Amino acid sequence: MTPAIASFPSEQPLWTPSAARLADHPMTHFRAAAAERSGLSLPDHDALHRWSIDDRATFWDLVWDFCGVEGDKGERLLIDGDRMPGAQFFPDATLNFAENLLKVSGDDDALVFWGEERVKRRLSWDELHALVSRLQQALEAAGVKAGDRVAAMMPNMPETIAAMLATASIGAVWSSCSPDFGPNGVLDRFGQIEPTVFFACDGYYYGGKTIDIAAKLAEIVPGLPTVRKTVIVPYIGTAEATASTLANGVSLDGFFSPFLARPVEFAAMPFAHPLYILFSSGTTGVPKCIVHSAGGTLLQHLKEIHLHSGIGEEDRLFYFSTCGWMMWNWLASGLATGATLLLYDGSPFHPNGNILFDYADAEQMTFFGTSAKFIDALHKSGLKPIETHDLGSLKMMSSTGSPLAPESFSFVYESIKHDIHLASISGGTDIVSCFVLGIPGKPVWKGEIQGPGLGLAVDVWDEDGKSLASGKGELVCCKAFPAMPIGFFKDADGSRYHAAYFDRFDNVWCHGDFAEWTAHGGLIIHGRSDATLNPGGVRIGTAEIYNQVEQVADVLEALAIGQDWDSDVRVVLFVRLREGVALDAALEKQIRDKIRTGASPRHVPAKIIAVTDIPRTKSGKIVELAVREIVHGRPVKNQEALANPEALALFRDLPELA
């Protein structure tokens, strides 16, 4: 297993959990409960994980009981457990997702919201119940019933959480995106799922600017002919005016004003009843509509948020996310633990890069979730929150969206907080959760994800389907789990769903990540499999290159592709440089030397080209495949899935690549 460690040499872990921290951690109590139920000793986390995949039925049954799921479990725990897809967890169970997120009542905070520095609000549990009740009644009056779709183009604000809960309480299906999407990007998604009600804001704030979306909505709403009501939620103060211009438009106040709050009614639905429709990025074709179940999402999120992350009633949970990223759905499930959700919408760097850490101190944040890109950008900004903020309440920091570079691990411990559990996590929209994530009882090693989630038979396979103890291969999951999608929307025979995950290896989930095990039992994700580079037939993960080149002080970010060249593939590296820096021979040599010594000679690019921008999805992921298509003169569909589609033009017809 030495190749993995050779990439990030480290004699000591960056952080080790204290005995006091572990003594009262939910995972510790769960392991004791698992030992009692199984009759096994389960002396450590690895033993617990082995049991969780050897006896999945009993494991998930215990998760249900330990986390206090509300519902009728039924008699059978798992049928057809060896089929992927086809396994059915809790086939006789009924529950309601919203009921499980609204178990707490009272005057304590359920939701706290900051909209940059302009808006600060909080809702108690009782106020959230009342808002959900009125929205539920209004949705039912609009004809929404179980199985109908409700779509939202909303900021990450309290009304969005409440509208999702009201939708789920009826047994309807929720789908959301952020208001910065363009009209085509919205219609590519919601146009496929035929929503009955459409929620949208009147505008939003970003980087200190007020952005009105009335003109955008005027294009979108006519393209959604199944929508009976378009509900405009006030944020920038123009909801009434915007609603008046739209067919079937109504302000939020007008939508629910006829209804008084009463106890929320929760429709009991099957465990596998659809809850969410999430979308693939859509940068290489029409986005896939991925349908997730209420029961599977709930159990998986409770396991990750309560057990792996240690979140409970006294905690204040934050994840920097828009409503178009699956981490928003993950964050919302934190309510099921009794935690307070800290919501934020806007730029994380407005006005001076400190606002999220100001928020952490002001609201006694215990869990700080963000992206690898944010941590890297913070590092390059020169800010050091450890010197400017207290952060005494902060126990855990989580990073996802792309692989967290080894230097970013070091930055967190040196410049944010010394005593913190840093968890790099990875999974995705496909499972609305994580395959690999933080392990509370294990040390944190530089550059490594700590391990697989409980109940998930994660492995790394070579191209022939053989398990790899060391070396790079495909990330797979060998046994069924509850958070697998129900399927794709309108994929009647399941062929598209099967092709997406099960064509590569029969009866095994192939996730599309290029990964390897480490000597510590952790994992390193080297990027997406479809973005791996193959110069001379050797597979190289793009993250391996980024980990090196982004340590060069003058490089802000990078993107690597494989260009077809002379009957082979050559590596081309694009770099965005600090303002005023030119890509001269000396800088090129510095970049090549860094990659050669930090990775290998095979990783060294044949070409290095400076660009002024790098295209990204709305959730901040760089789009290597779209750039590869542009470089090869092929069209890129659905450019509205990108946050900055204009950046693609920078890569077209480059003379350096001719």
From TrEMBL:
Superkingdom of this protein's organism: Bacteria
Residue ranges crossing the lipid bilayer per the database entry: none
Domain AMP-dependent synthetase/ligase: 105-476
GO MF annotations in UniProt: acetoacetate-CoA ligase activity
Catalytic activity, EC: 6.2.1.16
The keyword Ligase is assigned to this record: yes
Keywords: ATP-binding, Ligase, Nucleotide-binding
Record-linked CDD domains: AACS
AMP-binding enzyme C-terminal domain sequence ranges: 550-621
UniProt key word ATP-binding: yes
Family annotation (InterPro entries): Acac_CoA_synth, ACAS_N, AMP-bd_C, AMP-bd_C_sf, AMP-binding_CS, AMP-dep_synth/lig_dom, ANL_N_sf
Domain (Acetyl-coenzyme A synthetase N-terminal) ranges: 46-100
Family recorded in the similarity comment: Belongs to the ATP-dependent AMP-binding enzyme family.
NCBIfam families in UniProt: ac_ac_CoA_syn, PRK03584.1
Protein name: Acetoacetate--CoA ligase
Lineage of the organism: Bacteria, Pseudomonadati, Pseudomonadota, Alphaproteobacteria, Hyphomicrobiales
